[in-house]
Amino acid sequence: MSNENSDKQIYCELATAIVKRQAEIIGLDMAVKKAKDLPEFILDDEGNVMAVYGKPINSLELLVSQYSKMSGNTAVNFCKDAIISIVTKYPDIKLPNILQIQKATVPTMEQFLESF
Amino acid sequence: MPLSTITFIITTLFLLVSALMVFNSYRENKSVILKYFSGFLFGIAFASGSWGTGSLLASSDPQIASFTYPFGVLCGGIGLTFFTRVGFNFTLPKFEKIIFWLLICGNIGFATFLLFKLPDVKISDSGVTLWLINSFQAFCVITIGIGMTILNLGLFIYQSLKVTKKILKIRSILISIAFLFYMTGGLAHNIATTQISLILIDTVTTLGAGLLVFAIYLPRFTKNNQE
Question: Which regions span the lipid bilayer (chain B) (predicted)?
């Protein structure tokens, strides 16, 4: 149960990072509005995501798709870029396919030495 | 059985065990770097296996034995190329693929060049295998080998400096020392002609392979001790 809660917290962090990075491209108001259009997310006007409902992986995918409808692949790349530091901090967190590449392309020697 | 054959067999077994352990981990978590690292271990294991076979056949069939030398260099070279790929994957991932394929082509070309003058393989009275290699070929093998060792060790140590966990730091230091021992011993085989030097070289090579198994098994060992 506590694992599930901490995972939810991480997904909130991921979603916040995505919204805030999108705000740099399309503006804070638009980035927040687009996220608020999705019932899966509860967030404040500053773009801080406080709750993620439903399956977090699917919800994150919906959020990324929402932004990619506006700015296409650039939005997806910005989303991936936004979450790198969080993914490095929590390497076991599961991500939707659309956000997978960054996780695979940022291996560290520490992760390698730990993996065998 | 000649003394050299025994040390080659032990070295090959150590390396094969290491390679299989890493390959098993790769099958579990599908990390591409583990695939490359197991490629490196399998490559040098086959190289040692090939030279061991040569040593074993030296008295009965020296002609076949001499062919095991370039074949071993090819296997070892391919193994080293996989290790280079590991290092580049961390440091310059953009170039890892092109460097890998360039080195593979270089290896094939170099092994072909070695076929032009095969070594004379002999067993000394005390059971040590003497590889009488053409001096120019030996010079090329040693020069390229030293270059590859410095490159690979440099990349590996550079990345290892960023490791923070103590047990992983020890693991990376052991792998670096093991690699240095194995390469020093392996390359020195190309110039050693006296029995004492060959015994010393065989020992260093086997010690390197042994250290590698220990480095790979170390975290499991400490985990078992903690439980």
Answer: 6-26, 33-52, 64-86, 98-116, 136-158, 170-192, 198-218
Instruction: Return d(Cα A116, Cα B216) in angstroms, integer.
Output: 7
CA–CA distance, B75 with B70 (Å, rounded to integer)? 9
| Rounded Cα distance, B47 and B76, in Å | 5
3-state SS, residue B92 = coil
pTM beyond 0.90: no
- How many Å lie between the alpha carbon of B160 and the closest alpha carbon of chain A? 6
Which residues on chain A are in Cβ contact (under 8 Å) with B163?
Answer: 109-110, 113
Residues of A in contact with B21 (CB under 8 A): 116
**Is 90 exceeded by the pLDDT of residue B72?**
yes
Establish if B219 touches chain A: CB-CB under 8 angstroms: yes
Which one of B163, B179, B216, B220 would you mutate to disrupt binding with A, by most A Cβ within 10 Å of its Cβ?
B163
Q: Which residue has the tokens 């992986």?
A: A57
With an 8 Å Cβ cutoff, are B160 and A105 in contact? no
Cβ–Cβ gap B165/A110 under 8 Å: yes
* Residues in B touching A116 (Cβ below 8 Å): 21-22, 25-26, 34, 37, 216
Domains contained in chain B, CATH given: 3-226 (1.20.1070.10)
Q: ipTM score of the complex? A: 0.82
Domain count, chain A: 1
Residue A1 banded pLDDT, cuts 50, 70, 90: very low
**3-state SS string over chain A?**
CHHHHHHHHHHHHHHHHHHHHHHHHHCHHHHHHHHHCCCCEEECCCCCEEEECCCHHHHHHHHHHHHHHHHHHHHHHHHHHHHHHHHHHCCCCCCCHHHHHHHHHCCCHHHHHHCC
- With beta carbons under 8 A apart, name residues in chain B contacting A115: 25, 29, 31, 33-34
Is A109 close to B165, i.e. CB distance below 8 A? no
